[in-house]
Amino acid sequence: MREFELEVPAPDKWGEGLVSVPGGEPVDIDLRVESVHEGMLVSGTAGTTYSGVCGRCLTDIAQPVEVEFQELFAYPGEEAEDFEVRDDRVDLEILVRDAIVLSLPFQPVCQPDCPGLDPATGERLTENITERPQESVDPRWAALQNFTPEPDAGAPRRDVENTGKS
Ligand SMILES: [Zn+2]
Q1: Domain-by-domain residue ranges, the chain?
Q2: From ligand 1's centre to the CA of 15, what distance in Å?
């Protein structure tokens, strides 16, 4: 059994979603290779950083990701295997890439409770959650605000005008 610590750049962009690991991003690999009867049992962890945009508010994000992997690389035999020992070497690229790509979030968010974009203005709500009043109304219903009964009928004149237009 042998152990290795590697740092290698991602050879390509890994992932096709909102976030991905850019080509050249360092990938840290802690590797354990065990000789077994059928071949080499390869296991370990791989860590890197993915980047992209929040799926709700489109803010740029970058987050660490770490995955575990394990695969038996078989000695070449009569049947072709996906993972084989070739020339006494094992090629980890597909193994590590697939493990990382599968772990990338499908709906990445900049923070767990990201409120996304304001449906009315398109502005990010992240920065000013506290300032935004609760009374924010769906714009499709905004016209109905004019029909709200006014307890004090002191100045209803504006409401009357608005009602007439709509
Ligand atoms: Zn966000």
Answers
A1: 2-103, 115-149
A2: 20
Q: Which two tokens stand for residue 136?
A: 């924010």
Q: What's the rounded Cα separation, in Å, for the pair 34 and 27?
A: 22
**DSSP secondary structure letters along 39-66:** EEEEEEEEEEEEEEE-TTT--EEEEEEE
Residue 157 confidence class, pLDDT cut points 50, 70, 90: low
Report CA(122)–ligand 1 centroid distance (Å). Answer: 13
What's this model's pTM, rounded to 2 decimal places? 0.70
Is there a contact between 44 and 58 (Cβ–Cβ < 8 Å)?
Answer: no
For residues 147 and 87, give the distance between their C-alpha atoms in angstroms, rounded to a whole number.
Answer: 80
- Tokens coding 88: 């006494």
